[in-house]
Amino acid sequence: LYALLIGPPGAGKGTQAERIVDRYGVCHLATGDMLRAAIRQGTPLGRQVKEIMASGGLVSDEIVVNLIRDNLDTPECSKGFLLDGFPRTLEQAKKLDELLDQRKVKLDAALEFAIKDSVLIERIEGRLIHKASGRTYHTKFNPPKVPGKDDVTGEDLYKRPDDNAESLKKRLAAYHEKTAPLCDYYDKKGILHRIEADNAQATVWAKIQNIFDGCI
Ligand code: AP5
Ligand code: ZN
């Protein structure tokens, strides 16, 4: 399965990605997670993107295309991949097409997580993450078994630095201006599927399985 997720901040891409990689055995290539890992490790790349990410801006196309290129051929991706948060601009989508053409891979599906902006603030403000794994919780919608602690490791959960009202505004603006047009791009290729992402997690998951089961 070769698929990608398009949706605004807080739409539930990462949450559903956890289930998708589990069920379909594909790798999870999330550029946001990779960039946060670089920041955590204090690499030169991490230092370069830290401020931009915290403010809610997009990092350069070159940086994220390189991250994807470096990871596409890893053994974890041998059964397929799920791209989450990439591509985010038309330029990135075109570069992805090149990378896939070179590998003779065809995308099976692009899922659009459709959701109103007004729902997203509560999702973002209640989000907690486990830094090492990227596992995601919500204080109200998906609470951890022990408050503030990861279910698997028992380690502390954190808030993302860009999960505040001001950065969210900028992330939403970037989404509408730069990323939403990609839905048209993939619709023209005949692989776009729209999902109502303001439904409960289980409902969204059922819909995704329907779509992907028809692809494999
Ligand atoms: P990235 O990490 O991709 O963040 P994002 O796109 O803003 O998306 P989020 O991770 O915030 O949301 P999500 O859809 O994954 O929601 P989640 O499942 O966690 O990017 C971060 C930054 O990195 C960018 O701003 C940019 O600076 C940079 N970057 C990354 N990729 C880039 C690229 N390609 N080009 C340029 N720059 C790039 O869910 C949110 C919350 O809601 C959770 O608490 C969850 O538990 C809860 N929830 C999920 N589903 C439901 C549901 N159905 N009902 C109720 N609650 C739910
Ligand atoms: Zn995410």
TrEMBL record:
Annotated Basic and acidic residues bias: 147-161
Keywords, comma-separated and alphabetical: Kinase, Nucleotide-binding, Transferase
Adenylate kinase active site lid domain segment(s): 127-162
A single GO molecular function term of this UniProt record: AMP kinase activity
Annotated spans, Disordered: 139-161
PROSITE patterns xref list: ADENYLATE_KINASE (PS00113)
PANTHER family documented for this protein: NUCLEOTIDE KINASE
Protein family according to the UniProt entry: Belongs to the adenylate kinase family.
Protein name: Adenylate kinase 2
Species assigned in the record: Salpingoeca rosetta (strain ATCC 50818 / BSB-021)
